[in-house]
Amino acid sequence: MAQNKYLKYLVLPVLFGTERTKEILHVNPTVLPHRIEPENIHVFVYDFDADALKEHEADKVEDCLNYKDSNRVSWINIDGLRKADVELVCTHYGIHYLLVEDILSVNQRPKMDEVEGVLFCLLNMLYFNADKKTVETEQISIVLGRDFVISFQEDPERDVFNPLRQKLKLNKSQIRQRSADYLCYAMLDLIVDNYFLVMEQLGEQIELLEDELVRKSSTRSLAKINQLRKEMIVLKRNIAPVRDLLNNIIRSENDLLDDRTTKYFKDVYDHIMQAYDLSENYRDIMVSLQDLYINNVNMKMNEVMKVMTIVTCLLAPATVIGGIFGMNFEAIPYAHHKWGFFLAVGLMLLVPMWMLWMFRKRGWF
Predict the structure, then answer these.
(1) What CATH number labels 304-361?
(2) Domain 2-296 adopts which CATH fold?
(3) Could you give the C-alpha distances from 119 to 224, 251, 277, 287, in angstroms and in order?
(4) Which residue in 33, 48, 122, 355 has the fewest CB atoms around it within 10 Å?
């Protein structure tokens, strides 16, 4: 059991995570997405105004169709994407078929569109897998219409909207007093704020790696650097386009967006800019850590070469003296003397000791 634990590191593709590279870089928008449809979906509806909140949970999308004209703000959250269900909801709420394709897409770039009276936002929620030390993504599509917000999620097990659900239950919460565009802002704000939580956990991994490199670096340290740099790619790929998404919302003159809500979207824009700058800092740190690893390797090599050079220099006098007394001549001083051997060995020891003292005095080691 213990052997299998360490034998996996002998395989280079496992050590350096080439499969993770394929997973990150394998994006081809010209190929139709292959999405495995879930057996079950979950639909949560929050229909509210300043005075009341109505919560409804269902296992089929037909139950949310009658909230279109409720004269209150409705948040319909669908966990699990099935093509027929998405098409049914979008057709009922007047969502264009191009947006349906974006909702059902895989590895789509975050973006914002305005099509036929609705405002569409597509981006990714980020999570940090503490076991695999990787950044995981979940695509979410948010459709803002007149008095309704529909969100489509891939994973029914997790999201970042629990604080929003708690605020909806408070009668005097600001979100209950405002329109659907404020609800859309609140959702985007939670998604962006969660980016910082993921980045904090990545920052901790970077700190641990830096300590490891300073104390004792190894080939496994290089593998960790390689892995973290890949996670930086995932982070930047998801954060950078959200800047444009929020910038487009701020510049939009859509009637669905109240002028009073613009300042809130500007606040989210400031947050995403800060997250982008932080991701750039992390990227620079990873480059510095790679340089630190290379410098450590070079220093170790220099230490080894220095020791080998000193050993070679110390053995040189013995080699010279042994070579002189080993020459095939008849007249060699002390060659036949009874103390000749001891004199030669003494010189072989005294000269290297003197050389060692000189090296030490000059600070060469």
Answers:
(1) 1.20.58
(2) Beta Polymerase; domain 2 (3.30.460)
(3) 41, 13, 27, 39
(4) 33
